[in-house]
Structures are given as C-alpha cells and as structure tokens.
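Students often ask why we bother encoding 3D structure as a string. The short answer is that it lets us treat folding as translation between two languages. Here is a chain of 339 residues written in the first language.
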Amino acid sequence: MKKYSLKKEQLYKIFESFNDLNVLIIGDVMVDAYMWGNVSRISPEAPVPILTVKKKEKRLGGAANVALNVQAMGANPILCSVIGVDYEGLQFLDLLKVQRLSQKGILKSRDRLTTTKTRVIGNNQQMIRVDEETEEDVQQTESQTLLQMISYIIQHDKIDVIIFEDYNKGLITPKLIQKVVELAKEKGIPTAVDPKKKNFQAYKGVTLFKPNLKELKEGLKMDFDLENIPEIQRAISSFRVKQKFETAIVTLSEKGILTNSRKVKEHLPAHIRKIADVSGAGDTVISVAALCRALDLHPTLTAALSNLAGGLVCEQVGVVPINKEHLLEEALELEFVKK
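And here it is in the second language, the structure alphabet:
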C-alpha cells in the first residue's frame, strides 16, 4: 500500500474547511456539575476525606459536549435530544444559550430527569461521581416526535454529517437508528457513531463506527490481548463487514488508535502525554473523526487527528472541548505531513 502523505498547506485548508460544516448530533445530553476543592483531613465520622469546596461549576455534557467539540473545531452543531422538565433542564437550556447553541432539536419530557453527573474533585483529582438520571427508553410518542424533528432538520438544513452519541440513557433506540440511517442514506449524508453496549449491534449500515476497546469487548463478547493488534484488527474487520460499516475506528487508550476499512488497516500509537483526566476524550474523538469523514478525508489522517485530539483533552481536569489551534500545531508535526 502506498504510504499516505500530505502537505502543510493542505492541512491548513482542511482546518479551514471544518468551518463550513453543519453537524447533526443525536444523543443523550447531560449537565456535568463540578465541586472543586482541597482535601487536608479525614472525617472523624467515617474514614472518608473531607473536601473544602472552593468552586462550583456546571458544564454541558454527554452529546452536548460533542456539540461543544464540533463548535470548537469551527463547525456548526445542531443538537437533538430529550431533557426533563426540571431545574437541571432549565440549567441545561441556559448553558446552551451561553454557548450560543441552538435549542431547536431539544425536546422536553415530564417523564424524565435531566441527566446530571456531579464530579467531586479534591486536590485536582476526581474523588467521586454522583449520577442523577433516567435510563429507561423514551416513550414511543416522544421518540416519534424526536424522529419528526430530526427528519425536518435533515430535509430543510444542509447537514454534512450525523453523529449518534449513545450514553445508554434511553434516547437512542434501534428503531430510531434504523430510521435516521435510512434518511441519511437517501440524502447522501455520512453517519458516525460513538456506541455503547446496549445498541452495539443495532448500527447496521452506518459510515463510521467508533467504540473504545472496552466497548468493543463488551459489544462483541470477546476478550483481546492489547499486545496482539492483528487479532483485534481481524475481529474488527469481521464485524465491519457483517454490519456494513465503511470504516471502524477503535481507541485503545495508552496504545493509541486503530482504523479499519476495506483498503486501510492501520495502528497509530498514542502520543506521550501527562494525563490529568480521561473524561470526555471519547466525545472529542468522535467529533473530530466525524468532521474528517464529512470532508471525506483519508482514513489515516482521520485516525491521526482523532487520536491527537483525544490525547490533548486528557491533559486537563474535567470534561473540556478540544482547542483547534493547539490541535493544528500538533497535527503539523505528524510524520506524514510534509514540511
């Protein structure tokens, strides 16, 4: 196979082209809440650390963090999801306004909680996470309303790629997946998926499928030796052909990333980083990978940029979107970019 390469000028142009893209994001949204503070003593009531709170913060999470990453890359995200009619739901809408993100795809449900994940961080380390959520599938009537909203957006807006961001919170169902993939194919829109175990086998015919290694193991009910990359590639190839994916990308944490399509099967190692927090890295990887697929970029470049982006956000504590300028700086140093 001919080794892939591109010029610096081409890379600059690609990063500019991200600004012209519209991305439809379908998935479970949440509020990421943080309590930051210092720990200097143990409680006399129980053997647990005492956190003296210095700062509280609320951020957009889940599929909304994917929207933030897409926005950070210069593209225009359109988010489709369900929130509860509750205080946290109002906070979520306020956070959307602050970030200048559209609310037109957000459905409010009286039967659901707005998912909230509260992370308690002491001395810059996550100590505990508290989740408030509903995990049952959305009601059929709500799912139908959501599908109508999605269909309207696909028919009336210029959509360059669709991302399914599945957190197993009940928004994404096999029927919703099937209908959206059909609509996307009719319009020639590529689809990208960040899957979870529950719907792992339901994404037949999507363009880009991006699990991490844990999700791949659970979804295929197989165990893998991380040292045996050819074995993992064979399992991915078999699943990709069976499910009719164009490309599969699998993140391997400190072992980097695999890309697998009919023509390209490659393993890109991870870059050495000072890891502070892996939260939200998968959101960043799927965001960058989907934007690359919208521009029909080479699988090697798609995997390399996604790999870089996922690593960069791990250097910061908490869920944060990618910094486009920083990503471009590092991308220019990739071995296949001609100086």
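Translate back mentally: The radius of gyration is 20 Å. Keep this in mind for the problem set.
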